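Summary for the steering committee. One of the milestones for this cycle was to obtain a three-dimensional model of the protein with fe (ii) ion bound, which we needed before selecting residues for the alanine scan. The sequence and ligand used are listed below.
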Amino acid sequence: MAEAGTLHDAFIDELRDTYDAEKQLTKALPKLAKASSNPQLRQAFESHLKETLGHVERLEQVFGSLNEKVRGKHCDGVAGIIEEGKSIMEEDFDDTTMDACLIAAGQRAEHYEMAAYGTLVAWAQAMGHMDAARLLQQTLDEEKAADKKLSSLAESGINQRAADAAHPDEEEEEPVRAGARAGRKGALSGKRKR
Ligand SMILES: [Fe+2]
Ligand SMILES: [Fe+2]
């Protein structure tokens, strides 16, 4: 009978999966950037692309610290998220609605990565692979910051402008400034048509 795998085997497997996920994302992020109308959103995707190239390199260092060969293993999870993002980009949405959808797609990827790196850091720490844990934590921090950045862009006007376009009647009742809060107040006091 074959010997049962250990947490260390599962850890290496997860590293390979994540390595492949990062590589897939280096190809997907330029497409998200290109599809963005809002310049700050495009900038956010572009700067996270640079970080993502760093994540690939950092994982290579992690493999090195464990005396493991650098190897990827197809990540079905991120492939699915990217596939969904592609379908969204094929939709015929107005610019701001598309931006809101691109943020949603980007955040799905970031949350997947945050889950992956959260687990990898915890397992590395539990097994005493402290160099690996430190490197993985650096990437986890950058994924969290990228996710926050996307939330702040959504909440600082993109969602509200898309919502106003969806419910133009409410916009007439109370003109909405770029501020999301003023818009939300308007939406609550206004009557919904659909
Ligand atoms: Fe990443
Ligand atoms: Fe990321």
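Key point for the committee: DSSP finds seven helices and no strands in the chain.
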